[in-house]
Amino acid sequence: MTDVAKLAGVSHQTVSRVLNDSPQVRPETRERVLRAVAELGYRPNAMARGLVSRRSRRFGVVTFDTILYGPACMLLGIERAARAAGYGVGIVALERVDRNGVLAAVDTLADQGVDGVIVIAPQQAAAAALRSLPVRPIVVAVEAGQGVGLPSAAVDQIEGTGLVVRHLLELGHPTVWHVAGPDGWGEARDRLEGWRRALTAAGAPIPPPMRGDWSARSGYEAGLVLADRPEVTAVFAANDQMALGVLRAFAERGVRVPRDVSVAGFDDIPEAAYLTPALTTVRQDFDEVGRRSIALLLRLLDADGEVAEPALVVPTLVVRESSAAPGR
Predict the structure, then answer these.
(1) Residue-wise burial string across 20-44, b where 16 or more C-beta atoms lie within 10 A, e elsewhere
(2) Rounded distance, CA 60 to CA 74, Å?
(3) What is the DSSP letter of 271?
(4) Residues facing residue 37 across a β-bridge
(5) 280 in the same domain as 290
(6) How many domains are contained in the chain?
(7) Nearest CA to 60 among 33, 19, 36, 90?
(8) How far is 224 from 257, CA to CA, in rounded Å?
């Protein structure tokens, strides 16, 4: 920092103010300091900056089931956003999701001196545990659903489902069958609700949903049942892994996709574009959820009172070869 101050012709304190983004620096002085920083390749020491600001410059993340695509991508998005903000991340991964486990994980991170904690909580048990969290530290929930009582960031699961169901109906399908996610998951609940809302709004019949557990095997088992029902012309699976299982079952039973039945999923896993046929699905912007959750934590650290929660992140419909008009 001394070398930066010397090259820029300013005091050590001025360099510190620029690096901490203080508004009490003239624009021309800030520019001169930043040029010196770039020329010297100076990198501020995070620990030293933390001592000045009385922050550890570390956030904690409580997560679980990181082998699942959604939670794993959410964790990666949060870590990227934290790094971009100059923060490190400590992670506690839970094997079991219950009240005691979530509270213990938050306590562990608080004892490590993190400035705030993000809890990835798509399971309803985790969301319920968040309602009894202690006052410290600052906590932001991710994918915890409504009514959790904490600041939160999330994807609009209901609207994302509406996008894919409306797409299938607009192709001319009389209704859309649904392979739902497991009980106890907020995302499964919201996607089920979004499916029902979209069918109701279109005046389409609502078939009985089938339950899966997010796995390709459960989608395969549901697909074997659906393949024997001639009235089925369109299927929406609550995630791409279950959609993959449906495709396998249909192939075994001689059901042609999309000529006989259209199939769509949710998540847009990397393999979705390379399935046979390529899968129509819904893409979630996990990086944007990560950015919003970190931005919300930073605002809470700087605020004396409550701050406005970010709007839900609207996902994107990705149309591929697995969906078409019925009877093509």
Answers:
(1) eeeeebeeebbebbeebbeeeebeb
(2) 14
(3) T
(4) none
(5) no
(6) 3
(7) 90
(8) 14
CB 260 within 8 A of CB 276: no
* Same domain flag for 111 and 215: no
Residues 32 and 96 in one domain: no
Say which DSSP state 76 is in. H
Flag whether pLDDT at 67 surpasses 80. Answer: no
β-strand pairing of 234-237 with 210-211:
unpaired
What 8-state DSSP symbol labels residue 321? T
Q: Which of 16, 108, 29, 63 is nearest to 293 (CA)?
A: 63
Q: What is the pLDDT of residues 92-137, one digit of tens each?
A: 888 777 777 888 888 888 888 898 898 887 777 777 777 666 655 7
Question: Which residues constitute the domain of residue 8?
Answer: 1-44
pLDDT at 308: 74
- Is residue 224 domain-shared with residue 298, that is, in the same domain? no
For residue 256, which amino acid is it? Answer: R
Q: How far, CA to CA in Å, does 166 sit from each of 22, 47, 240, 249, 279?
A: 49, 51, 18, 24, 16
Mutual angle of helices 157-170 and 186-202, in 10-degree steps = 40
